[in-house]
Amino acid sequence: MVKVYCIGVGGNGQTYVMDYLKDIVVNNIDDKDGLKHLCCPTKIGKAPFQRVKVIYVYNKTFDSICSHYRRQWAPIQMQKIRKHENNKYNAYNDVNKYFDLVESTITDHFGMEDHFIRWYQYRKNMNVYYLDMACINKQELAKFLECDVEKFRDLNFDSSSRHKYDYLKQKYPLSVMLYENIDNKIKQLSEDHNKKLFI
Prior knowledge:
By secondary structure, the chain is mostly helical. Helix content is 42%, strand content 9%.
């Protein structure tokens, strides 16, 4: 039997997806098993990867980072999604300190892009579907999970009710630009990959 995992960097609607698909997703919605934000596919466990399907959830990376800071666990999340656990970012437990660092270095210190790339470049990634929470393709998701598209009739993620972080976006324009570029890269690579799944 195929196991379905839901993976992502968090702060992007992943919990919503996991709750909606709780009858088929095997990893824990509260991350008690340490799989929800798994840093790379090689750590997925002992199950042969051909008997595993992964839904990789993504959305706007700047907003995801702000969400982690709003909930006061950004340094913990950085350690979860980074391949090598590193405590150096514990000093950046304040959102302003973090984005000051990003503005001065023009670098994604959180690890959003690196996390995606590790999953994308995995040699067995044909068992991974990249789910864009800004534009859910229900037909593709149904094909990937080999089920009726009606299963997703009520899968409607409303991003309009999410926090906007306008103050931070105005204060840190270079960070916004950096993360928009990362978002565009993730979206393009994801769409190209997903098309190959159904050829």
